[in-house]
Amino acid sequence: MPAPRFTPRPRNDRDPAALDERWPSLQASFLDLLAECSMIVEHGRSEFDAARSLTYRAAEAVIIHFDDLLGRIPPDREARLPSDLSLAAVRKTRNILSHDYRKARKEIVWDAIEHRIPAVILALVD
């Protein structure tokens, strides 16, 4: 039997020193998402709600990226997360959007882009 071509290695994402070193890059990514949220909101709700809306697609991408970044924040930054933020709800929303398990409710996506994600980012980077 041939040797496997790929051998997975354990991830080392939770090493505190490595996480601290990555914070400047993560912070820049969070700030980029904040700017993207602002741009989506500036285009307005009617454009967001339109059929085949590019701003809706952009909002999907922001939420998917936001979930990914939340999984990589250092422990000292985790303490800054708002107490009413459900990481499980963020992950569930991300899964619905990325895998299209069922049609997402646009009002939830809009609220996340207009209010929830910016508030979390400001709490993390402040």
Calculate the mean pLDDT score and round it: 90
Whole-number total of structural domains: 1
Largest sheet, strands/sense/barrel: none
Shape: globular
Helix content: 55-70%
Number-wise, the strands total: 0
User: Would you identify the regions where 5 or more consecutive residues have pLDDT less than 50?
Assistant: none
Radius of gyration, rounded? 17 Å
Summing up helix and strand content along with how strands pair, one would put the structural category as mainly alpha
Q: Report the sheet-strand fraction.
A: under 5%
Please count the helical segments: 6
SSE pattern: HHHHHH
Distance between the termini: 55 Å
Care to describe what's here?
Helix content is 69%, strand content 0%. By secondary structure, the chain is mainly alpha-helical. The protein has one domain. Helix 1 (16-43) packs across helix 6. The model has no long low-confidence stretch (mean pLDDT 90).
